[in-house]
Amino acid sequence: MDVIAGILLALLLGYFLGCFNTAKVVSMIKKVDLQSAGSGNLGASNTVMLIGWKWGLFVGVMDFLKGVLAVVILRLLFPYDPAYAALAGTACVMGHIFPFYMNFKGGKGFATLIGVMCGFSFFFAVIMGVIIITVAKVTDYIVLGTMITIVAYPIYMLLTTWSILVVLATLPITAVIFVKHLPNIKRMLNGTEFKASDAAVGKDRVQN
After folding, report:
1. Both ends of the chain: CA-CA distance in Å?
2. How many other β-carbons are positioned within 10 Å of the β-carbon of residue 124?
């Protein structure tokens, strides 16, 4: 397989995997329009806010798994060049954020990014998970863990591959997820941001 074909495969496979949106399916099951309430995003965090932590966890796990799958498939196909897997991971996150069949309005891509990281290194993903949970516990804000993660990801890829191409493939994730979370940062600064403790409420917001 030549380079162009490999790049196209990575981008298309990653993007279409990312386009599968579990939150959309859950919103249809629970009859809650996630796009017109809360943050308006079709992702795990908005599902937690509007439907409850159990459904939000389910959405998060599914979003995570598609990121893992995108990277693992390309690593199996191109075991000696991580750039293809990095491209697939980036395309998967972009597919989650910008699904073509929903007017390019999906989720924020964070759970999928963690899955992408896990596809490269389970150990690194676990470390980042611990950091995210710790930061959320200490500050009560999930968004701070998100910011740390999007900075850590390209740095990790640089230190483990020493490939500028791989790092360049990861940077769109950092840029887009940062922009998508700017409203969260603004709400955090004015004290209205959704808090980690709010997600721990032990009941669904919508009755089963």
Report:
1. 50
2. 16
The answer to whether the predicted template modeling score (pTM) of the entire model surpasses 0.90 is: no
**Cβ–Cβ under 8 Å, residues 73 and 152:** no
| CA atoms within a 13 Å half-sphere pointing along the CA-CB vector of 61 | 7
Domain segments of the chain: what residues? Answer: 3-199
* Contact indicator for 154, 170 with CB cutoff of 8 Å: yes
What is the spatial distance between Cα 175 and Cα 144, in angstroms, rounded to a whole number? Answer: 15
Helix ranges, 31-121 (H): 44-50, 53-77, 82-97, 110-120
Cα(27)–Cα(34) distance, rounded to whole angstroms?
A: 6
DSSP helix/strand/coil, 16 = helix
182: Cβ–Cβ under 8 A, 6 or more apart, which residues? none
Distances (CA, A) of 143 to 150, 168, 169: 11, 24, 23
Task: Divide the 208 residues of the chain into consecutive groups of 10 and give the mean pLDDT of each group.
Answer: 90 96 91 81 83 89 96 96 96 95 88 96 94 88 89 95 93 92 86 70 45
